[in-house]
Structures are given as structure tokens and as C-alpha cells.
Amino acid sequence: MVDTPEPIAGAPVGRRVVLGLLGLGVAGVFGGAQIQKQLAKVLGPLGNHDPTGLVGLIPVGNSFRFYSVTRGAPRKTADTYRLEVTGLVETPRTFTLADLDAMPQTDLVRDFQCVTGWRVPEVPWRGVRLDHILELVRPARVATAVRFTSFDGTYTESLTLEQARRSDVLVALEMIDGPVTHDHGGPVRLYVAPMYGYKSLKWLSGIELTADVERGYWEERGYDVDAWVGGSNGRGDDPTA
Ligand SMILES: Nc1nc2c(c(=O)[nH]1)N[C@H]1C(S)=C(S)[C@@H](COP(=O)(O)O)O[C@H]1N2
Ligand SMILES: [Mo]
Fold it and tell me: Among 36, 58, 67, which is best to mutate for testing ligand 1, by the most ligand atoms less than 8 A from CB?
């Protein structure tokens, strides 16, 4: 955590932050996902907003940005976190973090790629297959799609039921080397391995079975509903602008 108090929006970056960023150059040799912990430590609250663009200038490459279309989300703990699964299902259910922890866990090591072009190679992910959760609630025959909501109150995403059942789509509890951190959408986020990062909704609070695909936040703003990496919308403009 940066201990120089600095107002976030438009503020000059504190000296300690800059020194910290320079220090990261040393860590660059590790590259990839491992850099993330140190980035989070040095950037602290700036990591969420990056009003200066400095994050993009850090000489390490292959690092995560923290994205949020809102000013973040409330913090949820094992006591307060709930995942509601509703809509066109036989048995709507509400799961706690302990419930999700007790389910079979799947490990994946996959690249994480934002449609804007940054990419983090070989990120370890761990969580419950979305398909497992769908089995527990039993989708009705008329359900063809799944809609996801975030406890940031704004962001949404969706998948077809067929996509949602893939073995590389996780309700993720861990990424990199521990629990999904708050800034990365913890305690629970979605991870849709074969698609661009905007599908991997952070701060997951709702899964709703629907009759048709409903467009998500960025899809309302022009991005492809089918966000396969390498597909038509890998065009390099910025869905977070
Ligand atoms: N709730 C929420 N989820 C989100 C976003 C967001 O702004 N809000 N941004 C998406 C985009 S565009 C990307 S690339 C990834 C970034 O994940 P990260 O912030 O953990 O790096 O989260 C996705 N999920
Ligand atoms: Mo993204």
C-alpha cells in the first residue's frame, strides 16, 4: 500500500509511487503473472484508476491492468459474499464462499488477454466449473443463455448456455497464487479462458438463466458478444476508455 496520501483523480503521483515503479524494473525479469503481487503492493489505490497512465509505462510488460467501469465495488468477505443463481432453472440457489470452496475445483493455466492488446501469459486459475453450478440448479429446457451480474452494480456479461458449459469456463476463486484479490474482482470472478478479458466479469454476484443472450456492458457499446480471442473484434481500440 502506498503510504503517501494522494487524492486519486488527476492528482500528481507521489514520489514514493514513482520510486516504487522504478524499483519494479528489477522485478521485470520475472515477467508475466508473478509481477502482479508487486504491482498491487506498489500501486495500492492508484492501481484501480491509473489517472496518470503510468501503469502502462512500467517497464515490465505482460502485466495486468486493474479494470473497473465503476469506482470499484464494495468489499465482500466469506461472511458477506453470496452468489445467487436464478432465472429459468428448476431450483434457484444461493451459494456462500464456503459452498463454492467445497465444490470440485479445476485448475487451468491460460493466457489472459484484453481486447485492447495487453496480455498476461500463463496465468494459473482455480475455481469451480460454471457447468458444475449449472448442474446443481438444472436449467429449464427453454434456457439458452446465461447472464452474469456484478456487485459493482453496473457491469454485466453473458454467454450462450453451450459456451457456459465449456470445461475452460470457471467461477474462479483463485488466480496467480492465491485467492482472487479485491482489485481483480474477488472473492469470486468469472474466468472465460477462450475469450477476451471483458467476458471475465469481476465481483460476480449473480448468474441468471435466460431465454436469449442479453448483451453485456461492453457489448452494448459495440463489442462482439462472441468474444473469442483472435476473433473479429481484436481491433486494438479501448473498451475501457
Ligand atoms: N465488474 C467488472 N468486470 C470486468 C471489468 C470491469 O470493468 N468491471 N473489465 C473487464 C475487462 S475489459 C478486462 S480486460 C478484465 C480485467 O481484469 P483485471 O482487472 O483483473 O485485470 O476484467 C473484465 N471484467
Ligand atoms: Mo479488457
Answer: 67
Which domains are assigned to the chain? 5-221 (3.90.420.10)
pLDDT tens-digit series, residues 158-211: 999 999 999 999 999 999 989 999 999 999 999 999 999 999 999 999 999 999
233 lines ligand 1 (CB under 6 A): no
Residue of 202, 203, 204, 235 with the most ligand 1 atoms within 8 Å of its CB, for mutation: 202
Residue 126: DSSP 8-state: E
Instruction: Give the whole-angstrom CA distance, residue 35 versus residue 4.
Output: 22
- Cα separation, 213 vs 223, in Å, equals 14
Rounded CA separation 157/139 (Å): 18
- The model's pTM is 0.78
